[in-house]
Design brief:
Blueprint lengths: L2 E7 L5 H12 L3 E7 L26 H8 L4 E4 L6 H4 L7 E4 L9 H6 L3 E4 L5 H16 L2 H9 L21 E5 L3 H10 L5 E5 L7 H5 L3 E2 L2 H7 L2 E4 L13 H6 L4 E5 L8 H9 L3 E6 L19 E3 L8 H20 L8
Parallel strand pairs: 1-2, 1-3, 3-4, 4-5, 6-7, 6-9, 7-8, 9-10, 10-11, 11-12
């Protein structure tokens, strides 16, 4: 008898790609139906500023519509569709949820446990994409790529950017501080080694790999990293401990003229404090890809500052991210159907 699988994807995480990988992994003994949501052409809900659905973060879709689509399916593969407690109460046959994300922020995990629903995710799906983007973000700020581009587009030839007192510095002469040493942070370390810069890592929950220790990477406390780094790049998860932890006190400890890079999560940063640090010149610049509220308001003060680069949460957006997530989800589905333990349970 075929096992029923519902797939809720979107215009980035294409449901057809997931269906193809699941079919390849599981054969024809599965009955798959797919739903494509309109993200990113339409914004998702962001619960960091106050969730509209049982405390869930970053989701898309109305509960009634999602429940109706899942119906009698035993397995769900989703990117952004929410699964709340009230929804699970209406989905008695659902036993497995694969979330194609690094964290199940759109799933009520306690409710899933209470209903004996196994939830798995796809950690590291976009680690390569975000790490590469982070290197690009660092170079855009430190080598004045953004400044030169904006001026030239506006009809101004910034020859003054060649002046010794204004031009950029090479990574090889700087110290880069990486906060968070997970799948992304550790890959940023690997990429940075080619530039010859000094690398500091702050993460109290992990130890450096032997290779990184042998290559001179230092594992330091957060305060020491902030005081020593010319560039601070964030790769931590949002927790009660890290929410807003880059605030006025932390920014005051960062050395004068340093750069802040955030390709992790918006709630890590106190944006009012960051605005003041940039406007005063204490920070040399910042590059931000994630925000507490997305999309950002058109009148957001940070949009008016000349020393900040902003991108619309695209660090993890690559074709490879989709295929990696689909491969991971398909393997988890295969293992569940075969009665094997999951690789990445939440």
């Amino acid at each position: 008898m075929s096992r029923s699988i519902a797939i809720v994807g979107d215009r980035f995480m294409l449901p057809s790609v997931f269906a193809d990988h699941i079919t390849a992994a599981c054969g024809n003994g599965v009955d798959i139906r797919i739903l494509e949501q309109p993200w990113p052409d339409e914004p998702m809900e962001h619960g960091y500023a106050g969730s509209k659905l049982d405390g869930l973060k970053e989701f898309m879709g109305q509960p009634d519509d999602i429940v109706e689509f899942i119906g009698e399916a035993e397995l769900l593969v989703t990117h952004l569709a929410p699964i709340s407690r009230s929804m699970l109460e209406r989905l008695p046959k659902l036993k497995f949820v694969a979330v194609s994300r690094g964290g199940p922020v759109n799933i009520d995990m306690q409710a899933a446990r209470d209903h004996n629903v196994l939830v798995v995710n796809t950690p590291g799906r976009n680690a390569s994409a975000v790490a590469e983007f982070t290197i690009g973000a660092i170079l855009a700020e430190t080598r004045l790529i953004r400044s030169g581009h904006e001026a030239l587009r506006g009809g101004e030839w910034r020859g003054d950017l060649y002046r010794a007192d204004r031009t950029g510095r090479e990574l090889g002469e700087m110290t880069v501080g990486i906060i968070g040493y997970g799948a992304i942070g550790s890959r940023v370390v690997k990429l940075l080694k080619a530039f010859g810069c000094k690398i500091l890592v702050a993460d109290p929950y992990v130890q450096l790999s032997a290779a990184d220790r042998n290559d001179g990477v230092e594992h330091v406390a957060l305060g020491q990293l902030l005081a020593r780094a010319d560039i601070v790049t964030l790769h931590a998860r949002v927790t009660a401990e890290t929410t807003g932890f880059i605030g006025r006190e932390a920014l005051a400890r960062i050395r004068q003229g340093a750069f802040l890079i955030n390709t992790a999560r918006g709630p890590l940063v106190d944006y009012a404090a960051l605005h003041d640090a940039l406007a005063s010149g204490h920070l040399g610049g910042a590059m931000l890809d994630t925000f507490a509220v997305e999309p950002v308001p058109a009148d957001w003060p940070l949009l008016q500052l000349p020393n900040v680069t902003l991108t619309p949460h695209i660090a993890g957006a690559s074709v490879r991210t989709v295929t990696v997530a689909a491969e991971q989800a398909a393997e988890e589905v295969r293992r569940f159907l075969a009665g094997e333990p999951p690789l990445n349970p939440c």
